[in-house]
Amino acid sequence: MRTYEITDEDNEMIKMAYDTLAKASVEGNFFHTVGSCLKTSSGNYYTGVNCDCIHGSCAEFIAVGKAVSSGEHDFDTIVSVHPDGPAGLFSPCGNCRQMLMEYSPSVKVILADDDGNIIKTDIGELLPLAWKRLPTGDLMH
Ligand SMILES: [Zn+2]
From CA 81, how far away is CA 9, in angstroms rounded? Predict the structure, then answer.
């Protein structure tokens, strides 16, 4: 698996994801358990938390939605956190991996490996032989 060095900026993104999670927490109301921080290629940051309801949303979707609705479409790196996750991080679910691959196939993901080490890798490493949009941007159907 191709990996990249974890930088001070990456650690700052982890902190921003935790700060976002803390801001969303309201005792006895909703369960915001995952925070996410997305860095775009232009160097801006967008954060999100999971939204807890019958058809809730992952934190990654919220962060990506904030970026896209701000006119940002190229992503550099994303990280998600959960206090009980390995190394305090959260591995994006399969649906989020597919979403990230479709929106920005060169995005890097910070997560923990099976030994609890923090790593950064390409989304393609987490979703081999992924379904991709056609070069025209269209869906295949
Ligand atoms: Zn997800």
Answer: 15
pLDDT of residue 131: 87
Q: Tell me, in angstroms, the distance from the centre of ligand 1 to residue 74's CA.
A: 19
**Is position 115 within any domain?**
yes
pLDDT of residue 135: 77
Catalytic residue flag (residue 27): no
User: Which member of 9, 12, 60, 72 is catalytic?
Assistant: 60
How does residue 141 score in pLDDT terms, banded at 50, 70 and 90? Answer: low
CATH number, domain of 22, equals: 3.40.140.10
H and E: helices and strands count for the chain: 4, 6
In a domain, 23, yes or no: yes
pLDDT, position 140? 66
Is residue 60 situated within a structural domain? yes
Q: What is the pTM for the complete model shown?
A: 0.93
Report the chain's mean pLDDT, rounded to a whole number.
93
**Burial zone of 57 (CB within 10 Å; 0-12 exposed, 13-18 middle, 19+ buried):** middle
How remote is the CA of residue 11 from the centroid of ligand 1, in Å? 21
Which residues sit with Cβ closer than 5 angstroms to ligand 1, an ion? 58, 93, 96
